[in-house]
TrEMBL record:
Signal peptide: none
GO MF entries: DNA binding
Record-linked PANTHER family: CYTOSKELETON PROTEIN RODZ (PTHR34475:SF1), PTHR34475
Superkingdom per UniProt: Bacteria
InterPro entries noted in UniProt: Bact_Cytoskel_RodZ, Cro/C1-type_HTH, Lambda_DNA-bd_dom_sf, RodZ-like_C
Lineage of the species this protein comes from: Bacteria, Bacillati, Bacillota, Bacilli, Bacillales
Keyword Aminoacyl-tRNA synthetase: no
Keywords: Membrane, Transmembrane, Transmembrane helix
Protein name according to UniProt: Protein RodZ, contains Xre-like HTH and DUF4115 domains
Domain Cytoskeleton protein RodZ-like C-terminal: 226-289
Pfam family, one: RodZ_C
Amino acid sequence: MSELGHYLKTKREEQGISLERLKELTKIQKRYLAAIEEGRHEALPGAFYARAFVKSYSEALGLNPEEVLETYGSELPQPKQQTNDFPSRAERTKSQRPKKKKKSAFAPVVFGIIFFVVVAAGIYLVIQGTANNGSGGIAPEDDPSIEVDSNDDQTTDTEDNNESSEEPASEDEEESVTDEQEQEENEENEAEEKTEDDQSVPELVSTNNRRSVYDASNVEEMVLEIELDGNSYLDVQDESGSVIEDFAGVQPGDTVELDYSDRDYVNVNIGNTTAVTVRFNGEVIEYPDDAVHQYLIFDKTVD
């Protein structure tokens, strides 16, 4: 038994805490806790987990984890230097965000052409009407065989004038309707985009003791993408603390997609936030805390 294991076991027994109870407090498997006490560090998943497990063990007993690691840390295996150069989370977030499509400029051009054709047609009709009114012919007084009804002439002139005055009004109405339709379409598109954004991303409501709670009551789908860039302990728990996903076979470089739309509560336990990227419905979740070990809780029943 190593000095570290002997020290931690002694403190645990002094407080009357069993390994089973310590497992519930730390969320670390019992066989790993026993390996730490017995000094069998090679039984742990890796060098990073050794230090992370000792830190969680110390915190559960109310000890100062930094002092424990400073005193006995030389007994633990040292993590290998990461050689891969990964982009920052901000760069990955920028690259992952879908680009919004630009609105086409084709529609205004088509409306402009239609408006021009309508105006030209109106002008042509007005000119034709004026030409017909002023066309040559035999004057009534020069041809005694033709009787002219002055009332009919006045009626015809009135109808022509009405047609000429009504044509521009119809063009203005068509232009106004076209502008209103385009404005309504733009407003509908903006409202749909805003609604889609609001319904896909949860809202952060609290952060306390490395636990961040997100209100997911406004989303219909709850799809998590978990991308592993390095070594990290991972699991997903329900509201009772039971593990529903342990990521046993996940390796660095893997991305796992999990659909929890049928659940009201999921708790993502992340041992090393510097090596894990979490996306909720395609949107990257920024860690609200600087701690390495964090919990991201998505709850549809938040009051």
